[in-house]
């Protein structure tokens, strides 16, 4: 089964579930975020959780959720040659060698030869 089949359908409406269980659209979520940014951090807001919450605490929770979503690895994001363990090891080895200033480098991955080919050692080195 291809990993690309796991992508969400284009006609699907994306919603975000709030801590109190309500679902809101992404557009409504963004409008609320802008309104929260305009408020005082200590202002109490109803409708986020089960109790009134500070606007600053809600903004922190939203930011944490956004960072979590960005850093979460999605099933369809890990396909292709650059996710292969051997490619990752080759890049780590090349980075280690390139970051050592006076090291003679005898091998570089194909992806890096155009940019760092001048660092490759010749037969005389």
Please name the defining characteristics of this protein.
two-stranded antiparallel ribbon, 41% helix, 4 strands, 125 residues, mainly alpha
Structure description:
The protein is mainly α. The chain is 41% helix and 8% strand. It contains 4 helices and 4 strands; from the N terminus they run ββαββααα. It has helices spanning 26-38, 55-71, 85-98, 110-116, and strands at 15-17, 23-25, 44-45, 53-54. It has a two-stranded antiparallel ribbon with strand order 1-2. The longest helix is centred in the middle third of the chain and has 17 residues, at 55-71. It is elongated and about 75 Å long.
Average pLDDT level: 82
Structural class: mainly alpha
The helix content, as a percent range, equals 40-55%
Strands ordered across the widest β-sheet: 1-2
Overall spatial form: elongated
Major sheet details: 2 strands, antiparallel
Q: Oligomeric form of this entry? A: single chain
Strands, count: 4
How many helices? The count is: 4
C-alpha Rg, in Å? 24 Å
Sequence of secondary-structure elements: EEHEEHHH
Return residue spans where pLDDT drops below 50 for at least 5 consecutive residues: none
N- and C-termini, Cα separation: 49 Å
């Amino acid at each position: 089964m291809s990993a690309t089949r796991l992508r969400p359908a284009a006609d699907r409406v994306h919603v975000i579930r709030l801590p109190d269980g309500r679902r809101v659209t992404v557009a409504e979520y963004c409008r609320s975020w802008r309104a929260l940014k305009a408020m005082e951090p200590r202002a109490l807001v109803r409708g986020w959780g089960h109790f009134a919450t500070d606007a600053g605490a809600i903004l922190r929770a939203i930011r944490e959720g956004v960072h979590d979503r960005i850093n979460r690895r999605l099933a369809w994001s890990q396909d292709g040659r650059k996710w292969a363990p051997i490619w990752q090891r080759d890049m780590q080895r090349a980075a280690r060698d390139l970051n050592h200033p006076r090291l003679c480098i005898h091998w570089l991955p194909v992806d890096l030869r155009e940019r760092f080919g001048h660092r490759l050692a010749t037969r005389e080195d």
